[in-house]
Design a protein that fits this description.
Layout (H helix, E strand, L loop, with lengths): L1 H42 L26 E13 L2 E14 L6 E2 L6 E12 L1 H12 L7 E9 L2 E8 L10 E11 L5 E10 L2 E2 L1 H6 L15 E4 L2 E4 L9 E3 L2 E7 L2 E7 L16 E6 L2 E3 L2 E2 L5 E5 L6 E4 L3 H6 L2 E4 L5 E5 L39 E7 L6 E7 L5 H7 L7 E2 L5 E2 L3
Parallel strand pairs: 1-19, 3-16, 4-12, 18-21
Antiparallel strand pairs: 1-2, 1-15, 2-4, 4-14, 5-6, 6-7, 7-8, 8-9, 8-11, 10-11, 13-14, 15-18, 16-17, 20-21, 22-23, 24-25
Length: about 425
């Protein structure tokens, strides 16, 4: 009798425990599903910075966040496209835009997307410019210039290397030096205005100008985005670099000892949220669908940090897999991915904080930029002859003469025979 009672009590307890366990399991599952629902709502929340989405969002799916692009902010980063060809980025707001709408931004296919620069500033160091010319712009054979070394200072760019004059010295490389300023033309292209040419140490620019011979008659540059016109080299920043293609309007270009500084100011209104980790050097992808390796980060927020926080991050787009594989990944509950990676190989570079605002002290010497490498003071007062378009009369005008522009050189070709020029190519009184 007692035995049967014990069995009933035991069975009742087991039933009670089973029901309780089932209720608890349902409670855990419900809580887990509710947490997942809350997390999914957070993951799917659009964090597109203002001004970074051109049109309406597409319909959201599990594979498509609906954003046109990947909005990205970079600060204090050496960004190499390939090897040492790239930029030191002070601060930059960009969008990575797939060429096929709705596709993710595939980091392994650099020709499938465009980097649209909205605002910020970058610096191309002299070594980067040197590598850009030697390893990309002039990476074909036969080529007119070889083994270039480029230096920059005081708004002037100097080139030292070997030059081959096709018609005069076929097969012979001649030591040559070029010098000039870089300006922006009306088409928003970079123009290297060459005002000094030396071959075997002999100044030739004035002589070539005097006899109306431009550099494009002696050599040619055959690379998309780079064209030698008369005696100026025109560089289109949207096509002269290795892919991915660049877009965005340059607001200003200047040269100093740090290199070539480019400032973009198309869209200053874009505002990014703060990344997960406070840092001095990082890449912050705030929205969009980047594809890294074979993984699409849908509506992802990805922050890339350097392992060595004492130096700017050096990121190599073509070799990003090697960096990511050697680093560590952390995934936050809100969906943020934090990648801490070793910097890619290359020189550590950081632009001078005050270089963009530097100014030269006053002195009794000629103004900066007035003396070219041939030793001529191109800003001194000269007596210049000008031809009036109606009477074709010679008028003497005393004025300060600036270096000749390309249009000026072209107009000089209409001057009558017998006109006298000095060695810098300027019209002077015949003695």
């Amino acid at each position: 009798m007692h035995y049967k009672k014990i069995i009933k009590i035991a069975m009742g307890m087991l039933l009670t425990v089973g029901v309780s366990s089932s209720l608890m399991a349902d409670s855990f599952i419900n809580k887990q599903q509710q947490d997942l629902k809350n997390a999914r709502a957070q993951w799917q929340q659009k964090n597109i910075p203002s001004g970074m989405q051109a049109g309406d969002l597409r319909e959201t799916t599990e594979r498509d966040s609906g954003a046109d692009n990947v909005s990205m902010y970079l600060q204090n980063v050496n960004f190499d496209v390939v090897e040492n060809i790239g930029f030191y980025i002070e601060k930059l707001k960009v969008t990575l835009e797939p060429k096929v709408a709705g596709n993710p931004v595939v980091f392994d296919d650099v020709e499938s997307f465009t980097i649209n620069v909205h605002s910020g500033s970058v610096v191309l160091s002299p070594q980067v410019i040197t590598d850009l010319f030697n390893n990309h712009i002039l990476d074909y054979w036969p080529r007119p210039l070889d083994e270039l070394t480029i230096t920059t200072k005081d708004d002037y760019l100097e080139v030292e290397g070997d030059l081959k004059l096709w018609s005069w010295f076929p097969g012979i490389w001649l030591p040559a030096d070029l010098g000039g300023k870089i300006v922006l033309n009306g088409d928003n292209k970079l123009v290297y205005e060459i005002d000094d040419v030396r071959v075997l140490g002999i100044p030739l620019y004035g002589l070539l100008s005097a006899i109306f011979i431009d550099l494009d008659l002696l050599l040619s540059i055959e690379r998309e985005g780079a064209e030698l016109v008369d005696s100026v080299l025109v560089l289109d920043h949207t096509s002269v670099f290795p892919p991915p293609a660049l877009s965005g309007r340059i607001a200003s270009a200047s040269l100093d000892s740090d290199g070539l500084r480019l400032v973009f100011a198309d869209n200053d209104s874009a505002t990014f949220s703060k990344p997960s980790v406070a840092a001095n050097s990082y890449i912050w992808a705030q929205s969009g669908d980047p594809r890294l390796f074979d993984i699409v980060v849908n509506n992802g927020t990805v922050q890339v940090l350097p392992e060595d926080a004492s130096k700017p991050l050096r990121f190599n787009l073509y070799d990003y897999r090697k960096q990511v594989a050697a680093g560590t990944l952390k995934m936050a509950k809100n969906g943020d991915i934090i990648a801490t990676v070793p910097s890619s190989e290359g020189p550590d570079y950081r632009a001078s904080a005050s270089s963009s605002n530097s100014s030269s002290p006053a002195s009794s010497e000629p103004d900066a930029g007035c003396v070219n490498r041939a030793g001529f003071n191109v800003c001194e007062e000269k007596v210049v002859k000008k031809m009036t378009p109606v009477k074709a009369a010679v008028v003497k005008v005393k004025e300060t003469v600036a270096p000749l522009t390309t249009d000026d050189k072209i107009s000089l070709k209409t001057v009558k025979a017998g006109t006298c020029f000095n060695r810098a190519g300027f019209v002077v009184d015949c003695m």
